[in-house]
Amino acid sequence: MKFEWKKREKSLYLPKEKPVLITVPKQKFFMISGKGNPNSEEFSEKIGILYSLAYAVRMMPRKGYTPEGYFEYTVYPLEGVWDLTEEGRLSATLRKDELLYTIMIRQPDFVTEEVVNKAFETVRKKGDNPLLNEVTFGTMEDGLAVQMLHVGSYDDEVQSFQQMKNFIKENNLEIVTLKHREIYISDSRKTEKSKLKTVLRYQVCYK
Q1: pTM greater than the 0.85 cutoff
Q2: Nearest to 136 by CA among 45, 53, 26, 41
Q3: Could you report the per-residue pLDDT of 130-145, keeping only the tens digit for each?
Q4: Structural domain of residue 130, as residue ranges?
Q5: Are 70 and 60 spatial neighbours (Cβ–Cβ below 8 Å)?
Q6: Is 185 strand, coil or helix?
Q7: Which Gene3D superfamilies is this protein grouped with (predicted)?
């Protein structure tokens, strides 16, 4: 039976539309970082290279190589960790050109450095993409976190973030870092803005 994260890991990827406290374990990712507007062509190209690698891993058995521990699964959604430059933080309004980001796609636990190297080889055979040199593979662990599901336009996330901040204050918690994570459950190319589903997450600790 195919492993589907929407069904098997609901607490991480399909929370309710209100803040909840969870513990997020260590996870493996293909990652690429950058600065600037997420509506840019460069950002889209970086998303593309991540998906190329993710699907290269997913399709390995059909190409004649089955990693140890491999199982059928649905490719995980795109995620992003977001921050602002110092100049961006000082601005009274959000300046998207001052955004700092690391976007990523989670990989199953069976993915090792050997599997990663084979994925890179597969993608390189399709064409020399310089963005491959910017992609890294590693682990991230959010640990204790507050998250909620935001439904609607990305530009309206500020309302959900305020709900999360209120919850954090009410529960004697504090935000660990000004960075926050977003998990894009919906495909923005195929979904109306009002129906977009995005998981928002802050790393927190007790005061």
Answers
A1: yes
A2: 53
A3: 999 999 999 999 999 9
A4: 26-140
A5: yes
A6: coil
A7: Regulatory factor, effector binding domain
